[in-house]
Amino acid sequence: MKPAHRLTLFLLMAPAILWLGLLIILPHVEILILSFSQRVAPRVYEFGFGNYLEFFTEPLYWRTFARTAIMSIMVTVITLVLAFPIAMYIARVAQGRVKAMLLLLCLLPFWVSELVRTLGWMMLLRETGIISYLLRMTGLASQPVELLYNDGAVILGLVYGGLLFMIVPLANALESLEPSVVEAGFDLGGSRWTVLRRIVIPHAMPGIVAGSIIVFMLTVGNFATPVLLGGKNGLWFTEQIYAQFITRFNWPQGAAFGILLLLLSSAIVWAGLRLTRQSLGTTLRQA
Amino acid sequence: MSQSTDLDLVNVTKQFGTHAAVNNVTFSVARGEFFSILGPSGCGKTTLMRMIAGFENPTSGDIRIRDKSMIGVPANRRPVNMVFQSLALFPMMSVGENIAYGLTCRGVGRAEADERATRMLERVGLKGFGERRVTALSGGQRQRVAIARCLVLEPTLVLLDEPLGALDLKLREHMKIELKQLQGQFNTTFAYITHDQSEALVMSDRIAVMNQGRFEQVGSPRELYHNPATPFVASFVGETNRWQGDVASASNGAVTVRLSTGGMLHGRGGVSQGAALSFVRPEAVALAQDAAALSSLPNRFEGRVSAVLFDGAASSLLIETPGFDQPVRAVLPQAGPLAGIEVGEAVHLGWTADAMKVFAA
Ligand SMILES: Nc1ncnc2c1ncn2[C@@H]1O[C@H](COP(=O)(O)OP(=O)(O)O)[C@@H](O)[C@H]1O
Ligand SMILES: [Mg+2]
């Protein structure tokens, strides 16, 4: 390569390198270093694994993480089940303008910030909210019903926030399925269920994997939704990180939790890929 | 309907909006027959096939397979299997799984399905290909998988929608013969659609010529070629000369046509007056160096060779002839004094009245 070319290439890649370096790698290296400094006395820190041990010895922490992980898996599965028929409709039934409209409709909630969206759900679900009011009006409930501050509300909010990120990769994957392949599935005697299980789902697998990873990672790392909709029952792992950084001012502990969140959720994604016999490579290639 | 038919269509019509893609079509296919539907692109062949397979419902009419009406029967319950234009192999499955798919859908056990798939692969000349991905096959091999996938189910009827369209010429010629052999081996009824008249002529027992949603004529390849019933069939099936003119006189099926450019032609047909279309096959045009040799023919002309279209056994000559608005096409003689004829040479040409079909225009 000529030097001029090399310079051009470098300049072209500079934004990407800066982005990766400044915004992703650098802070994480900082956090990683920070997480290994443990407090031995006020304002006195030394190198050690104490912050990590704290996670495993204090039940509140690892239980909160386990709860976060399990609920995130549930949210991912529910999102997938809900998104599949919607994506199917967008990809295979809707045509032209209707298709564009439907995708826009999915996108619309993301016009407002997550905080405002979640507050919207609070309006609906609170004791004096519309749903509670309707339940009383129709006689299904005799007194105001509090629908907020429970796991159901948290899952609802998280599924709502994740739906788009599942629908788009799914619709993408389903779109590339040739209609005649599906017809051949029926023609050779397959029932709807057989065609779905043996043809449609395997074809959509890269989209399913991509969507599930995105939704799972977004959910595990979410903060506003579990805090607002779950209240003090939310118990999301990000709240623990927040508490360490902001409330207790124990940055090294918070940093260790941050690293643990990254590692453990990555491990869950890896296990999920192994279980479904998918590889990240094929997913990225086909998604 | 008679016991020996596998497929009967009765007055089948398919309307898309106001456009009739298939218009009042009636035909029967006998057991074990190789039946082709031949027509130009867009004439409604695929629509017709999709109605038989169960992917479209006819607007009116009845489709019967072995005397059972198929109206309202879903595609996965019909004893018909289709080889799609795009083949539509399952890319997420191996070759063996593709073939076993239909069997497992029917509840055949895994082991037996695999064994039958393996045997079927052997029969179509793909022994040992069971584990391959379908994407790792050549065009001809994919073709055979698509057909084997249907045949393994022993259907009453196999539908083939232009299955050779995607192949290159050489392979297509080869697959034509192979398809015909497979059909004979398995003794299965084939309904084959194509826009390629040579495919239809070579393989079929009977051909239906379709145009704008209607059947123009149904008959054996020879019948269609030698006795076309309509001008469309005459020009669509095989090479032909086609001239437009007016009927000068007609009696008892013998018709004299006057071309606008002056030529008088004698042929046969049912037309008695008005505008007429005349058709003569290139191979029916006799050529000679002197006029005496053609003296027995009612149509005799003299012309000049304007082009030699050499294509081996299918070579032809274009002969600029006074009285005709376009050159007469004749087969290039393969032997004799005229075999070496060159552009610009004069030649005498003629044909019998029987060789010229005249239709009302
Ligand atoms: N689903 C459909 N909706 C509207 N028109 C259609 C549909 N399918 C086919 N057609 C029309 O019907 C006609 C015949 O199409 P087709 O059966 O595919 O022809 P062929 O297979 O002979 O080329 C075409 O004019 C086509 O545009
Ligand atoms: Mg077609």
Characterization of the model:
The complex is a heterodimer of chains A (287) and B (361). Chain A starts with a helix and ends with a helix. Helix content of chain A is 77%, strand content 3%. In chain A, helix 2 crosses helix 3, helix 7 packs across helix 9 and helix 7 packs antiparallel against helix 10. In chain A, a hairpin with a 2-residue loop joins strand 1 and strand 2. Chain A is built from 13 helices and two strands; from the N terminus they run αββαααααααααααα. Chain A has a single domain, classed as MetI-like (MetI-like fold, Orthogonal Bundle). With 287 residues, chain A is mostly helical. Chain B has 361 residues and is α+β, with helices and mostly antiparallel strands. Chain B folds into three domains: 227 residues, Rossmann fold, CATH 3.40.50.300; 46 residues; 68 residues, OB fold (Dihydrolipoamide Acetyltransferase, E2P), CATH 2.40.50.100. Helix content of chain B is 23%, strand content 35%. Chain B has eight helices and 20 strands. Chain B starts with a strand and ends with a strand. The mean pLDDT of chain B is 92. Chains A and B meet through helix 8 and helix 9 of A and strand 6 and helix 2 of B. Bound molecules: adenosine-5'-diphosphate (ADP) and magnesium ion. The site of adenosine-5'-diphosphate has 10 residues of chain B, from helix 1.
